[in-house]
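Step 1: inspect the first sequence and its tokens.
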Amino acid sequence: MSFVEPLESRRLFCVLPHDESTTAAQLAEHAVPAAATTTTTASATSEAPTAAPAAALSAVGEINVRAKGAAAYELGPVTRFFYIRRGGDLSKPMTVRYMIGGKAKQGLDYNVVGDRVTIKAGNHLRRVEVTPILDEFIEDNESVTLTLLPDPAYGIAAAETAATIRIISVENTHVPEPQPPLGPTVNWSTVAAAQTKRSEAMVAVVNNRIWVFGGYLDATATNSGRVDWYDPAANQWQNVSTTMPTPASHGGAAVIGTDVFLAGGYTGGRGGGQTFAVNNVWRYDTVANTWHALPNLPSARGGGALVALNGLLHYMGGSDITRNDRAEHWSLDVAGGATEWTTRAPLVTVRNHVGGVALDGKIWLVGGQQDQDADEVPQPALEVYDPATNAWTSRASMPFGRSHIAAATTVWRGRIVTFGGETTYQTSVKNVSAYNPVTDTWSELSPLPGNRSSGVAAIVNDTVYYTGGLLATTTWKGTLG
């Protein structure tokens, strides 16, 4: 059963165009006074000065504001943003003043956003973050409107002087049905074998196909750029006519729409030896079969986790180029077009070869290990990150520590499930462990048919598929009994 907080304390966002029927008097009713603090929780985001949104503005320093995005379809606090853009000369910083109105109250219904922000020199974009505050009141839908105020330093685009974000109360949203029970019986069978041996690959599910990226294809620990997909409906594997721009293993993978995002990892191998951390970030368009470079990670990492949540990519943990474990946690606002990563709360437990998933509007990190190879110490830790508070919380630990589960940890019927893994160096297990966030407990499901680690697991149509690991080609299919 999925965890659902009391209805009166949960809210959603829906971003809509500015309502022209809102009067100046209505806006002024809740406006921030001129003497109010200029401190704001707005997040600075830089973009290339030649990008289209700024280029479309007047060369004399015209600004506009938009509220980008659509309805948020999951329960829980969901951050949305006003995007303030400028054109013209970007060589100097620009302070933009605005008035906040609407029925929602700053500091009561959502975070305090102040009355101005400064766009840094060289940047044309600044975003203003709006995050709801959980309360115990049953309320109607409310709105937050940001209206740009005139200033001698800039002009205002006539068509985009204001934007509105609506806060949709849970009383007016659909509450999803509870998830059916999970297990404990999983009936395993063997389906079509993969076309190549594989270990330490990355995995993604797009349009009911399981995409597998890179990894090791043989015992030389040479990183591959090969891409394959498996179609469960046809029980067929296909080698895709593309290769990863940076052949890699041990990378993080996440999906937004039909795009797959890959970050970090190991590269190289064989004669030249491996590089144990890279900072590359790629977006792969599965429809157009094209690759696009995104802003690099702030530092090279391998063996960390990449999770997509609310239009943002989060990269956490892993090890650096010297194979030392790191606690850094960064996010990239893909939906907002950010060109640099933002620092978030660091991990509580540093680890690599770790599993990461999104569930109930939060990010969960599972297992992993500290140190490397013969010195590895598998970790049982489970920790959850809440983007609304930018904080990590420890939850019930796994029954025992295990690593090499980065691509074999997924969400199944509202539970976090991890398949196989490594308990000591080169010692694999076949355990399938499921975590229930409602009861904060772990349970065991029917094990894999054989011991595996470093494989990939994915859910398609309520059925799990596990392939590869330990340089195997075997693919197992698991259905609930």
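Step 2: inspect the second sequence and its tokens, then contrast the two.
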Amino acid sequence: MLCVFLGCPATASSVAEAPTHAVVVPAAAVRKWITTDELIRSYVFETMAARLTEVMTLAVEISVSRMDVRLAGLLLRLVSVHADETVSLTHDELAAELGTAREVVSRLLKEFEQMQGMMKKMKGGGLMKMMKRMGGMKGLPR
């Protein structure tokens, strides 16, 4: 939408999760609608404000939250909506959702696999004991 205001070409991509019909509207027509129709103007500015909020939230998450924690949270959310507990997304799609590179996601998933193997070998709260010995993690009881 910003390119409509700036008069520059826009590159866009999308993923359709259901059968979809799309329409391409010339920028000049959109600019005219925005100046003459209050409902369209409100919709455009509300949509731009929502997108700006999403980008700002992502920037804060990237700067504050560790990527492994963000990836784990995303995977848990995705698994919780599927009865068979599977996630049918590629590493590229996960990376796009998190605002990072595919290589980062691949490396972290490999680390998760290795940790899962170690956790299976531990019994009787071994993981908690090991983490307490290592200094613990934020939020874990000491």
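Step 3: confirm your contrast with the notes below.
The helical segments are 2-6, 27-36, 38-64, 67-80, 91-98, 102-121, 126-133. Residues 66-123 form a domain with the Arc Repressor Mutant, subunit A fold (CATH 1.10.10).
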